[in-house]
Amino acid sequence: MNHTIFTALINKNYSFMIWDILSQEEKNTVLLKLMVHVTKADNTLQEGEFAYLLQLCKQLRLDPELIRKFIVESNDLNEILPSSEQERMQILYHLLFTMKSDNAINNVEEKLVYQLAFKLGFSEDMTRDFITLMHQYTIDTVPLNSMLDIIRKHNN
Predict the structure, then answer these.
(1) Which of 156, 96, 100, 103 is nearest to 129 (CA)?
(2) Per-residue pLDDT reduced to its tens digit, 69-82
(3) Can you give the residue ranges of every domain in the chain?
(4) Which of 1, 52, 70, 73 has the fewest CB neighbours in a 10 Å radius?
């Protein structure tokens, strides 16, 4: 077996085990860091993106000052990702809505979401369907049923 593939498999399995022992606050912090990373993809933080991040902080009971901290930090994302499909889907959901929060999706943001979705274990086709859906609607009008249809389509 190729050393690189073997190392990737070990790291993937090890990361999933570590996620399970994180506190909820630590998991929420990882989620926020990923969302800030998406907003930084185009080198600008739009008002809608910032508002979405503030709302996420409130929802997750995190200090909004973390937004500033993660904006200033380097773009290296060596984060621990969850193993449960529900938690991974929640992260993908937030990635998609963060990408759309300024009502503009650019190629750099799309590429980053593809990369992160792949790290989360989602197929390129599923991610493409979600991104296409996000292009078709505003952040406030994305139909939940359409999102569920995409999940059903790719999980059958």
Answers:
(1) 96
(2) 998 887 666 667 78
(3) 3-155
(4) 1
